[in-house]
Amino acid sequence: MTGPRTAVFSIVMLCALLWAGGGFAAPDRDKLLTDPGVYGTFAAYSFTDDWARKEGATRIALLTVLKGVVEQHREHIVIDLYLLRGLSDHADILFRVHATEMRDIQKFLVDLQNSAFGKQMKVAGIMHGFTKKANYVPGFPDEMKAELKAASDPGAKPYVVVIPIRKSADWWALDQDTRAAMMKEHTEAALPYHKTVKRKLYHSTGLDDVDFITYFETSKLDDFHSLILSLEKVKEFQYTRRFGHPTWLGTAKGLDDLIEILAQ
Predict the structure, then answer these.
(1) Residue 76 sits in a domain of what CATH number?
(2) Which of 77, 96, 204, 212 is disulfide-compatible with 165, CB 3.0–4.6 A?
(3) Averaged pLDDT for residues 61-86
(4) Same domain (yes/no): 119, 158
């Protein structure tokens, strides 16, 4: 007799074999995650009440559809998945998608939402941004630049936090030198947590209702807590009109791991 875990694994492996036959070349993940000028979208979803009433076999069938949609679009984009359920009341799952063309991200999200699996979800929030070269780092002291380049602590960083930020009009009215001085203070406050909390910044002005999307990875949520408390004390934070709302907290999951959890 095969249990639910074995059934899920078998379905997942079958889908992997089917989609592997496509012969596509996946994009360079490291390049998309580090280069400037790359679009990043965060799409969070909650399950409908109908999902909880689905039997195990039906859930597995719908999750095979999710597997297929994700694998199909990995030819052009990088897709990361996170489980928010249990840690956030805003949504159940989160997709972080990177691409050189926003229309490729749009096509993935449209196909996902139009799929049989997607019809079991409600959009909890979608935010867009893109990566840029650091505006202020070139003017920092060499010692600080070296500290910023130091590698993070080894090991997995399973926790992820996504926080949208909107600055006030007064912030954008400041001259470049004044903003640079404040960002130097901001960076000094963050440096003690540089090795335990990884951060990625997305610029969203004009693409969304926020100015920035900040993405964090860590294995030490207490360090992340201390980091945020430190940043709230610097002068730059006084120019923040919106911080969070929502804040998404979750754990990073591989596609197969997420499918196994959602099948239960």
Answers:
(1) 3.30.70.1030
(2) 212
(3) 96
(4) no
What's the token pair of residue 135? 């505006």
pLDDT for res 149: 86
H or E segment to which residue 96 belongs = strand 93-99
Domain of 178 in residue numbering reads as 137-249
Task: Give the integer Cα–Cα distance in Å for 168 and 263.
Answer: 44
Asked if residues 117 and 63 have their Cβ atoms less than 8 Å apart, the reply is: yes
Q: Comparing C-alpha atoms, which of 110, 101, 106, 115 is closest to residue 65?
A: 115
Chain segment 85-144, per-residue pLDDT in tens: 999 999 999 999 999 999 999 999 999 999 999 999 999 999 999 999 988 788 888 898
Domain count across the chain: 2
The token duo for 221 is 């949520």
User: What DSSP state is assigned to residue 192?
Assistant: G
Same domain as 151, residue 102 = no
Give the chain's count of helices (H) and strands (E).
10, 9
Q: Which of 74, 166, 179, 199 is catalytic?
A: 199
pTM, full prediction: 0.89
Residue 55 in this model has a pLDDT that exceeds 50: yes
Q: Tell me the Cα Rg of the chain.
A: 20
Angle at 64 between CA 84 and CA 40, to 5 degrees: 45
Residues 191, 95, single domain; the answer is: no
**Is 199 among the catalytic positions?**
yes
